[in-house]
Design goal:
Layout (H helix, E strand, L loop, with lengths): L2 H13 L5 H4 L9 E4 L7 H10 L5 E4 L7 H9 L6 E5 L6 H11 L5 E7 L5 H10 L5 E7 L4 H7 L7 E6 L5 H11 L5 E5 L6 H10 L5 E5 L6 H8 L9 E3 L22 H11 L5 E3 L8 H7 L11 E3 L8 H10 L5 E4 L15 E4 L3 H17 L2
Length: about 375
């Protein structure tokens, strides 16, 4: 079976939640250098060991929902002397901190990519420090929903010399000072940066990104209620960085329910910050997520999508919870974005009867299905006229 088809089969079995120890055998081929299983929930500890027994040439490992992966499996990987370069594990909470540290000491020099997520009782600050010491060739690092990580991990991550792609989401609160220091050290070499849920990150973090990051193609700075609209405007204005292809600034807004319009000096991405983003990256940007940035005004949308300027590369746009967007504004967005294939507009209550062009999926909106059906009927009726 070709490798592309095998990967697609893994996705199908995962979606149907039928990947079991029996069906696992379909993916165990001794000549392959990768394995990607997106739902290991039905696998036991011995099944993980079987993977590394029958696939001695593995370089890329991606195992999601791997809740039964334990110390014995990681120790077995160390003893097998596998040449794993890309390691991605999800929900592997039964691996102890000591075992992680030993793994980084013995096999860290071979690793080029580490992606770990949903670790509530595994992986602490000292483990990350050992990773920084022994994984000198690391270029990709993703640590998301890791409950035990904090400021000491930020300082350790700041010491990586070859890191090009960084994605972090901590549950513990961290100080803006350490975040600024990390961006200052790593920024010049970064090509993608994702920071989600850093509640204390302030304008100094945005300014340090502006000052130090000159090669980013992807930026995520999400779930923050401290940075101001002026901070985002300063980030994107006269930024000596190529236009972004991906921008996620979702959930950056004031969260005072008693004052839904927000303070006079807007908190989070608002009109000026959004305008500056589109001025900087509009020509090349492919995907934008500004969901829940509720202080972007209707005038700002109308000014950016004015019906004359084109955003030729924009394919996906998430404007959920922007109640100022209506049928007229969304129609102008369709007109200005010829490559658009998906617009997400949950809780955009003024989007009611917009005509959705062929080839575009509108997710959300009150009468989305009706407008899509009408659009299709119009096209069919036009065919009969010729």
């Amino acid at each position: 079976m070709p490798e592309e088809l095998l990967h697609r089969l893994s996705q199908i079995l995962t979606k149907r939640r039928v990947l079991t120890p029996r069906t696992l055998d379909l993916f165990l081929r001794g000549d392959m250098t990768w394995i990607e299983i997106y739902d290991c929930g039905n696998l036991e500890e011995d099944d993980f060991r079987k993977i590394f027994t029958f696939m001695p040439l593995l370089e890329r490992v991606n195992l999601r929902c791997a809740g039964q992966m334990k110390d014995r499996t990681l120790e077995y990987m160390m003893n097998r002397n596998l040449s794993i370069k890309y390691l991605q594990l999800d929900a592997s909470n039964l691996i102890s901190d000591n075992c992680w540290r030993q793994y980084f000491r013995t096999r860290g020099s071979k690793l080029e990519s580490i992606k770990l997520s949903n670790l509530d009782s595994s992986m602490d600050d000292e483990s990350v420090r050992q990773m920084a010491i022994h994984c000198a060739n690391l270029r990709f690092l993703k640590l998301e929903e890791c409950w035990k990580l904090g400021d000491d991990s930020l300082l350790a991550i700041a010491t990586f010399r070859k890191l090009e792609h960084l994605s972090l989401e901590f549950l513990n609160e961290t100080t803006a000072t350490n975040l600024v220091e990390m961006v200052r050290r790593l920024g010049p070499n970064l090509r993608t940066l994702s920071l989600r849920g850093f509640k204390n990150a302030d304008g100094e973090v945005l300014w340090m990104i502006h000052q130090c990051c000159k090669s980013l193609s992807k930026l995520r700075f999400a779930d923050n209620a401290i940075c101001t609209d002026q901070g985002f405007k300063q980030l994107f204005s006269h930024w000596d960085n190529p236009p972004l292809t991906f921008a996620d600034l979702s959930e950056t807004r004031d969260v005072d329910n008693g004052n839904p319009d927000g303070p006079q000096d807007a908190i989070g991405l608002a009109s000026e910050g959004f305008t500056a983003l589109m001025e900087h990256s509009g020509e090349k940007i492919e995907k934008i997520n500004i969901s829940s940035c509720r202080h972007v005004s209707r005038d700002a949308f109308s000014s950016v999508f004015d019906g004359t300027r084109k955003f030729p590369c924009l394919r996906e746009l998430d404007i959920s919870f922007h109640t100022v967007v209506d049928d007229f504004v969304l129609g102008k967005i369709f007109k200005c974005c010829p490559s658009l294939i998906k617009v997400t507009a949950f809780a955009c209550f003024n989007v009611r009867d917009v005509q959705v062009p062929a080839g575009i999926a509108l997710v959300g909106g009150l009468n989305t299905q009706d407008s899509v059906i009408l659009e299709r009927m119009d096209r069919e009726q036009c065919k009969h006229l010729f």
